[in-house]
Predict the structure.
Amino acid sequence: MKFDQPVMLVGGGPLARGVMVQAKGYCGPVVAADGGADTALRFGLSLAGAIGDRDSISPESLHKLAGSYHYDSGQQTTDFEKCLDLIKAPLILGVGFLGGRLDHELAAINALAKFGQKPVVLLGEEDLVFCCPGRLELTLPVGARISFFPMEAVSGLHSTGLAYPLAGLEMAPAGKIGTSNITDAPQQVIKTTRGALLVILPRRFLPLVVAALGSDTKAL
């Protein structure tokens, strides 16, 4: 599934209307991950398609999506991973993946690291999360909260514009992490040469994250 516009990807977890509306403002097509189709249709969204193994989508939604449901029976990947593997788009905004069941939430975050080269942002009610590219330039206001969480050994770190610099640090799961850092300049640069590093920010900074990840898309 190839798209020229950013895509909103809807999962089957909890989804507040405000989160959906914010994400949809930056996206054209809407795609669902299996049971996320039920959520999308309840919100009255028009779906370009759905992807998954059909274990959580309702028969009613499956009937409505006849001809546009991409079935993958593989049990070694999650529906979210199936979506990330199939969708080609300048940006993917995922909603309905954070909150709810903890195992589902962790699986979604794990997929971010697995597909770390893709521009994917997951939105929750409070925060958003994405995998840091090799060089990330942000323009967050001074005093903004920004956290970093390594999904594997991370090295080659360097930063500017942060109260607690990352230079020289080596991060790893069950090792050094970067919770609750603070911006101390109006521009921030984060660099890393090795490892998947998650960036966690308040959801209100989505416009700045969209710009930083290289999409020219503004709110539609």
